[in-house]
Amino acid sequence: MTTETENPAVLPLIRTIRSQRVILDSDLARLYGVGTKHLNQQIRRNQRRFPPDFIFRLTPREALMRSQFVTASSKRNVTSPPFAFTEHGAVMAANVLNSERAVVMSVEVVRAFIRLRRAVLTQEKLARKVADLERTVKERQDGHDKKIELLLTAVKLLIDGSDAATRKRIGFAV
């Protein structure tokens, strides 16, 4: 059984863009120990290995939103928006780079994506359980409320004696 190593540096690099969890080219290049230019060059040379569900280029607006989180490097060509790699794109990038560090780090990247997926699934399961519990409590509460209402109505009738005239008298009349 292999032990899963923890690499906390990878997890914060994964962002959600277009409802997909991705890692940007500059972050991936830094993890793989290569320059962003070299990574993107390998991507262009191997375009057939990177279908749209593996990689996509950020729009200028998305790139602008990105710059709010991280200041762009002075070395980066800011006229070209960055690539965003999905989990499969990150693995494929390691394959085209073909370096030992890229292979090792791709395993860590995949593990980080898996941890995120597990966390989301756990959160969804917990949300479903809470919703089921709320529904059950509400159903029980509604049932109890009706029974309490009937009980209170009966007690009020007994206290008021308002139905005494309509009830059949029992016993001897004096």
Strand order of the largest sheet: 1-2-4-3
Instruction: Calculate Rg over CA atoms.
Output: 32 Å
Order of helices and strands: EEHHEHEHH
Question: Shape from CA axes?
Answer: rod-shaped
User: Sheet with the most strands?
Assistant: 4 strands, antiparallel
Number of helices: 5
What class do helices, strands and sheet pairing give?
A: alpha+beta
Strand content: 5-15%
Q: Fraction of residues in helices?
A: 55-70%
> Uncertain spans, ≥5 residues at pLDDT below 50?
none
Can you give the mean pLDDT?
A: 79
Distance between the termini: 94 Å
The tally of strands reads: 4
Question: Any chance you could write out the topology, listing elements then pairs?
Answer:
Layout: E1 14-17, E2 20-24, H1 25-32, H2 36-45, E3 55-57, H3 60-69, E4 83-85, H4 87-97, H5 100-160
Antiparallel strand pairs: 1-2, 2-4, 3-4
Helix pairs in contact: 1-2, 4-5
Outline the structure in words:
The protein has 174 residues and is α+β, with helices and mostly antiparallel strands. It has a domain of 112 residues. It is built from five helices and four strands, in the order ββααβαβαα. Strands 1-2-4-3 form a four-stranded antiparallel sheet. The longest helix has 61 residues. It starts with 13 loop residues before the first strand and ends in a 14-residue tail after the last helix.
